Structure formats: C-alpha cells, structure tokens
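How a chain folds remains the central question behind the approach discussed here. In the encoding step, the backbone of a single protein was reduced to a row of integers, each denoting a local shape. We regard such an encoding as a compact summary of how the chain folds. The sequence in question and its structure tokens are set out directly beneath this paragraph:

___
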Amino acid sequence: MGNSALKAHLETAQKTGVFQLTGKGLTEFPEDLQKLASNLRTIDLSNNKIELLPPLIGKFSFLKSLALNNNKLTALPEELCKLKKLETLHLNGNHLRQLPAGFGQLSALKTLSLSGNQLRTVPTQLSGLRHLDVVDLSKNQIQNVPDTVGELQAIELNLNQNQISQISVQISHCPRLKVLRLEENCLELSMLPQSILSDSQISLLAVEGNLFEIKKLRELDGYDKYMERFTATKKKFA
C-alpha cells in the first residue's frame, strides 16, 4: 500500500477519531499512527498480516476500541495494558498463547474476543476486570477452567469448541454470569458442577456436543431451579 493512501487514511482519522485499514496485507502496525495518539478512539486493522503489536500502542491513551482480528499475532506487549479507556478488544483468529501479565489493568474493558487463538486455559488476568460484559474464548485449546474463574465479572462467557474436560465448581460463584456456552467440548456429565444448575446466576447454559446426552442433564438435581431462571429470563426478553 502506497504512502499517499496511508496519508489519506491518517487525515480522515484525524477528523473522525477512527482509523480503519482492513484487508490490505499490512505486515506491520503503521508507525505513523502515533502522530494521532491523542485523537484516536478506534483502530481497526483486522484481516492483515501483522505479526507484532509494537510497544508504542501504549501511547494511545484515549483509545476505546481496538480490533486486530485475523492477523498473525503470537504475543501482545505489556504496553497494551496502559490503555485505561479501552472498552472493546477484538483479537479473534491470531496465534496468541497467553495474555500480558498486566492485562488486568485494562480497567474499562467491557468486551473481549479471543476466539480462534491458542490459549490453553482461561487467563487468570481476566478476574481483575470489573466491567467485563462479554468474553469470547471459543475455538482455543482450553482443557480446564481454573478456580480463579469464580472472580470473573462477565455476564457472558463463551467457551465453545475447546477441549474442556474439567470445570472448577467456583464458576457457580461468578456474581454476574448469566450466559455460559460450553458447546462442543469434552465434558462428561459427572464433570459438570451441579451447582451451576442449583446455585448460580446462570440462566442460559449451552452444553450441546459434549460426551453426554442433553436429556441426562434434565435428570440432575438442580435442573428445576435452572429452568426457573431460564424461563424468567426468557419472559423478560420476550
């Protein structure tokens, strides 16, 4: 892509606060963007070939939304964690194995999409994020859901299409969790904590495509309580 095209995009971004350059075969994050570090509210560089997010990302202190779907990122810099106003982060379809240690400092984060990466566990850093609404960790290589999940503040947690065979009973203690998606994993019915049914806030539990028949779920203690929540929620949205 020529410099003149990039320049035109930068000029538009200066006026709108939005820099969007998708599907252009970019191999690196445009360094010229830092000239707009105080202007930009939204950056979308999805569908490129970016392998590295440079430390200068930490300068975009007013950024509210960052999308880098379908790139070639294998890691994220610690500097990303400085973005105190960031509300939406989309990183689907990369090669990420873990999140930076300071990820819990992204205190404004509401939506986090990490579908189609190489995560092996639910990152413990997520437990520190107080405003999280939706977390999408589908299509990773997650095998178990650790105790720290009990502190997760999300309303919806998507763990579809992983390799989960174990879930901590602490998931029932998530204070705001209403929607839990566990489709197409490796769960035996005995490994699904019954407290999800009897003692949680969860009103939509999606478990199709595991190692048990759905009708067996209906025989568990607590299923009636779950159905009460399910029905009450449905009425609310009907």
